[in-house]
Design goal:
The protein has 127 residues and is mainly beta. The protein is built from 1 helix and 8 strands. The protein has a single domain, classed as Jelly Rolls. This is Ethanolamine utilization protein EutQ.
């Protein structure tokens, strides 16, 4: 075992990262109010990114096509999720875990407000 491999690795804690998330571009997500931001972008070469996604009620759903596998945990509110290709519709509520396989085409909406934490197996440039 080398000295470098024996070095203890430190974990990270980031507070309040869910506050003041950047708004998703109106040009890509017209008529919606989605906010998203990575907290950790491929830390130490990890193949994962993680952060927060917030959605506010609008008349238009937010459409997102996944180019990577992602998991979300709903923290507050509820998401109405629809995959029009498969006909699948479900309501994901606080404390529910969600998995979106790469290639999923999802319409997100909410009756009021929803906040989730996500982890995606992707490069930071794909957000």
């Amino acid at each position: 075992m080398t000295i470098e491999s024996a070095k203890a690795l430190e974990f990270r804690v980031t507070s309040d990262a869910w506050k003041n998330l950047p708004k998703m571009p109106e040009t890509e997500y017209p008529g919606t109010e989605g906010f998203i931001g990575d907290v950790y972008e491929n830390p130490d070469g990890s193949p994962m990114c993680s952060g927060y996604f917030e959605l506010r009620h609008t008349d238009e759903p937010l459409y997102y096509e996944y180019e990577y596998d992602e998991m979300k945990v709903v923290l507050e509110g509820e998401f109405l999720l629809e995959n029009k290709e498969t006909g699948q519709k479900i309501v994901a509520k606080a404390k529910d875990a969600i998995f979106f396989p790469k290639g999923s085409k999802i319409y997100f909406s909410t009756p009021d407000y929803a906040l989730a934490f996500y982890t995606g197996q992707r490069d930071a440039t794909l957000l």
